[in-house]
Specification:
Number of helices of chain B: 21
Number of strands of chain B: 29
Structural class of chain A: alpha+beta
Radius of gyration of chain B: 27 Å
Oligomer: heterodimer
Strand content of chain B: 15-25%
CATH architecture of the largest domain in chain A: Roll
Number of domains of chain A: 2
Strand order of the largest sheet of chain A: 2-1-5-3-4
Number of helices of chain A: 6
CATH topology of the largest domain in chain A: Ubiquitin-like (UB roll)
Shape of chain A: globular
Largest sheet of chain A: 5 strands, mixed
Number of strands of chain A: 5
Distance between the termini of chain A: 43 Å
Largest interface: A-B, 69 and 78 residues
CATH superfamily of the largest domain in chain A: Beta-grasp domain
Order of helices and strands of chain A: EEHEEHEHHHH
CATH class of the largest domain in chain A: Alpha Beta
């Protein structure tokens, strides 16, 4: 039995502890906001926060995540209203097309801004380079992060 | 402490949310639905203001407000979206047309997704940039009819003539007394009135549109997307659901000879394995076959599949080698092929030309690689099937699932969820068939998850192509001859055995409909047999065709010492209207399935977008060292689009794209904000296919497996400054389409810019390290 602390709540998981956190979040906890994209840490769709830092939930086992503070897109704004500055900026710029990779993009950007509130253009691009968007929303993703860092 | 496995199945706000998709039927049953199906007359078929090819498709179009609109007594207007959402914004745009025309207040409109049913909702094949083209008028008619019924109901209530009332912004105004009554209060009476016939409809003056054309409305799923609450196909939940990952035949058409699942079944969480039969060719949208591993979660299913030992019979495609195949295609274009257009005497003109410019271009197979891989969740029980899908064709999917299961179509319910990208891949619903078959075999609800490896290695690939063009120029520098040999396996081979030439569909994507003002123009199509499933990839055969044609324009300009834009405009020629059915040798001209009478080729519109894109990028301005400008303009999916690119190539051959300007003329448009988004995205997807992406095959097996070897464009290499310019058009200019076109001109514009910057001509994509010094 593994105990996970996700978005401020405790959950127990009685399955294989070596399964990636991603699938436990999605298939066992029903927290489907975190997306599957590649399974090998190359696309960033599954980005969550582990103890405040961005992490790829496909690369981390449930066991490794146990005892840590896991935050998913559902818990990014603890009020549940989706009003984290990055989320607000995302709506301002109309960033998503299909939107599927955007939970990961937003989680990644939020972790960047938590650490570096006023990132340079280079820092933004370097931070988001691990998050692939096939629809090609990068221009607006970049704008949204700049907007969020300016404090919308 | 919550026990997760149980809680996951009854997660509030998920299953409940999905069931909101039943809202129309549910409300009707409860007697609170005031515009409902219970007093449905025979479905009125749309007579659209511009003639389309929609009626050639299953279900055609439907314009009945009873099918698409519900108003509850509180005034909330629910509008069905019948086309599926893959990222174009169509789930917002078409309901917005209904809302605007019926004078509904968008803040009181809810959009619900229609289940898969081509007959009830009209054709649902969401691809080909057809949604606005075919459904703008039917949706407008729905809205107009609804508005008139509400006005009629208000007039009856006040006992005045209908000309003395006016619907505006969710209420009807009594023009005599200035009283108002809300839509909610009128809904019940309005619903009992007959639907006005199409010829009696009065439409809003387009100047009074509140939403159409403004770009002020954001997509309906925007907030949910930013909160992780939007429900995609992969997010479907059913009580008791199990997760399946499938070992597909490594070579398409291969079969399971034997398998050993003993280690698989020892993996914790794995519950069973099920063999899926491989159907005979043509596969069409049927399952690929293989061995499915079913587990309590996807992670366990993947681990189980890793332990599976399968002996395969690879079948007839086991020798497919994309290097040898390319050499064979390159050989084919050196010889005459099937003649598919033959204006004038191209052979004679090439012989007498003062100068002949020849080049051969290559574009490899591409994988769609939507960020959400193919997925579906199905439950087959009691002779019925319910499925939640990520699918572009939910209507045909309903019919095919029924056929596969041997049950009536009405007993299959398909709920389309949001697609995490699709780009043509999810028109093919083989994974839905898999989910239905596995649920039937196990009796359990099954979610089929394709891993990224499955997605890349078992795709319905973009074709692979070699294009050779020979252009003859006379002594005055005028292009007098054009011979285009296009060689590529056809997507029709997925549906029909021994289909070895490009179909009229593919040849009509830029080859036989070439609009250039050249008197001697011949197109040939040597045979090419497919060895993988070929499917639709955004903008389809326009990618290789536009790449070759627009690169060749650049090559001719360079050979003659001319400006590339001037050369292109000269070759497009004076503004004129063309009907490719009159071109000699052209058979079964496709025109994207729509009438040439409505959408002929108008060369003036093509020239115009070339002019706009080049003006916007500052064509002719002086540039820093290593920079260059290039342009390409193309008609595709009945739209006219041009992209101008500024490229910068450094001393080592690294390229960056400081600026892109795209101009599009898509006729009358609904949502310019989404058109801009799609054009921005097209530049990024274009960067990927131009620079990075390639699928290769050896021994019939795809050699790339994930994002380490199938490379997409990341934010550091993508153009971040993309200007988009939409040619204004009034409602009388038929809408064409926007989802597909933005990808077509990008790669040739980039390669023309690279030539301008470096003098190096790229003829083979992807560029990869070709510029390295």
């Amino acid at each position: 039995m593994v105990t996970l602390h996700v978005n401020g709540q405790d959950f127990s998981y009685d399955g294989d502890p070596s399964v990636p956190l991603l699938w436990v979040l999605r298939d066992e906890l029903g927290l489907t906001g975190t997306k599957f994209g590649c399974g090998i840490g190359l696309c960033g769709a599954c980005t969550v926060h582990i103890d405040g830092a961005a992490a790829r939930s496909c690369l981390l086992t449930a066991e490794q995540a146990s005892g840590k503070e896991v935050v998913t897109i559902e818990g990014l704004d603890p009020s549940g209203n989706g009003n984290h500055p990055v989320q607000v900026a995302w709506r301002e710029t109309g960033a998503p097309q299909c939107g599927y990779c955007h939970a990961g993009q937003i989680m990644n950007a939020a972790a960047l801004l938590a650490k570096t509130p006023k990132p340079s253009q280079e820092e933004i691009l370097a931070a988001q380079n691990g998050n692939i968007c096939r629809c090609g929303c990068y221009q607006r993703i970049n704008e949204a992060i700049i907007l969020a860092s300016a404090g919308v | 402490m919550t026990h997760m496995f149980e809680s996951a199945l009854i997660q509030p706000g998920t299953v409940v949310n999905l069931s909101r998709r039943f809202v129309l039927k549910g409300l009707a049953a409860a007697g609170t639905l005031v515009i409902g199906t219970s007093f449905l007359p025979a479905p009125a078929r749309a007579a659209s203001a511009w003639k389309t090819g929609a009626d050639l498709m299953t279900g055609g179009t439907v314009n009945n407000p009873h099918v698409f609109i519900a108003i509850d007594p509180s005034g909330i207007v629910t509008i069905l979206a019948s086309r599926t959402e893959m990222g174009t914004g169509i789930r917002t745009s078409l309901p917005m047309v209904v809302a605007d025309e019926m004078e509904a207040d968008w803040s009181r409109v809810r959009v619900e997704q229609a289940p898969g049913d081509n007959i009830k909702y009209g054709n649902q094949d969401t691809d080909g940039s057809r949604s606005v083209r075919h459904f703008f008028w039917p949706m407008r008619q729905c809205g107009a009819a609804m508005r008139m019924m509400l006005e009629q109901a208000a007039a009856a209530r006040w006992e005045i003539d209908v000309t003395s009332v006016r619907a505006q912004n969710h209420e009807v105004v009594n023009l005599v007394t200035s009283e108002v009554v809300g839509y909610g209060a009128l809904a019940k009476a309005a619903s009992a009135l007959p639907v006005p016939p199409v010829e009696a409809l009065r439409y809003k003056d387009p100047r009074d549109f509140r939403y159409i054309g403004t770009g002020a409305i954001q997509i309906v799923d925007l907030r949910d997307i930013t909160m992780g609450k939007a429900t995609y196909g992969l997010d479907a939940k059913m009580p008791g659901m199990k997760f399946a990952v499938i070992a597909h035949p490594p070579v398409v058409g291969g079969k399971v000879v034997s398998y050993d699942a003993s280690e698989t079944l020892k993996v914790p969480g794995v519950e069973k394995v099920v063999v899926l039969e491989t159907p005979p060719f043509p596969l069409a949208f049927q399952q690929l076959g293989g061995v499915a591993v079913i587990a309590r979660n996807t992670g366990s299913a993947i681990k189980g599949r890793d332990k599976l030992k399968v002996v395969w019979d690879d079948g007839p495609n086991a020798s497919y080698d994309s290097v040898a195949y390319r050499a064979q295609m390159e050989e084919s274009v050196t010889k005459p092929g099937l003649v598919v257009r033959d204006d004038g005497d191209a052979e004679g003109a090439l012989k007498s030309a003062a100068k002949v410019i020849s080049a051969t271009y290559y574009l490899p197979h591409l994988a769609h690689a939507s960020m959400e891989p193919p997925t579906a969740t199905a439950h087959v029980a009691d002779g019925k099937c319910v499925a939640y899908v990520s699918c572009q064709w939910p209507g045909d999917c309903q019919a095919d699932v029924a056929k596969t299961l041997g049950i009536p179509r009405e007993d299959v319910t398909i709920y389309p969820l949001l697609m995490g990208g699709a780009f043509g891949r999810k028109s093919c619903y083989d994974y839905v068939i898999e989910a239905a078959l596995l649920s039937k075999a196990t009796g359990q609800p099954i979610k089929v998850v394709w891993t990224r490896e499955d997605d890349l290695q078992h795709d319905t690939y973009h074709t692979v192509s070699v294009e050779r063009i020979d252009a003859g120029v006379d002594k005055d520098g005028k292009v007098i001859a054009w011979r285009h040999r296009t060689c590529a396996p056809s997507l029709m081979s997925t549906f029909k055995n021994d289909y070895d030439h490009q179909s009229p569909i593919e040849l009509g994507m830029g080859v036989v409909d070439n609009p250039f003002d050249i008197p001697n123009l011949r197109c040939e199509n040597p045979a090419a047999k497919a060895h993988v499933r070929i499917g639709w990839f955004r903008v389809v055969s326009n990618i290789p065709h536009a790449f070759a044609i627009q690169s060749m324009v650049g090559e001719i300009a360079a050979a003659l010492g001319r400006d590339q834009r001037d050369m292109l405009l000269e070759m497009i020629g004076p503004a004129r209207t063309l009907d490719p059915r009159t071109f000699r040798g052209v058979k079964d001209f496709w025109n994207y399935g729509d009438p040439v009478e409505t959408w002929p080729i108008e060369t003036g519109r093509l020239s115009r977008v070339v002019e706009i894109a080049t003006e916007q990028i500052g064509w002719g301005r002086s540039l820093p060292k290593g920079h260059g400008l290039g342009v390409a303009g193309h008609r595709c999916f009945l739209s006219y689009i041009a992209t101008a690119v500024e490229v910068a190539v450094d001393d080592k051959g690294n390229l960056s794209i400081p600026r892109v300007e795209t101009a599009i003329d898509c006729g009358f448009y609904i949502n310019p904000e989404r058109i801009r988004a799609l054009c921005e995205g097209g530049a990024v997807m274009g960067t990927a296919l131009a620079k990075n992406s390639e699928m290769t095959f050896k021994n019939g097996r795809a050699q790339q497996s994930n994002f380490h070897d199938f490379l997409l464009a990341r934010i550091t290499e993508a153009p971040l400054k993309v200007g988009v310019h939409i040619v204004p058009a009034d409602v009388n200019i038929p809408s064409s389409g926007v989802g597909e076109p933005p990808l077509a001109p990008f790669a040739p514009a980039l390669c023309n810019a690279i030539f301008a910057a470096t003098g190096k001509r790229i003829r083979n994509l992807p560029i990869g390290n070709q510029l390295a010094t």
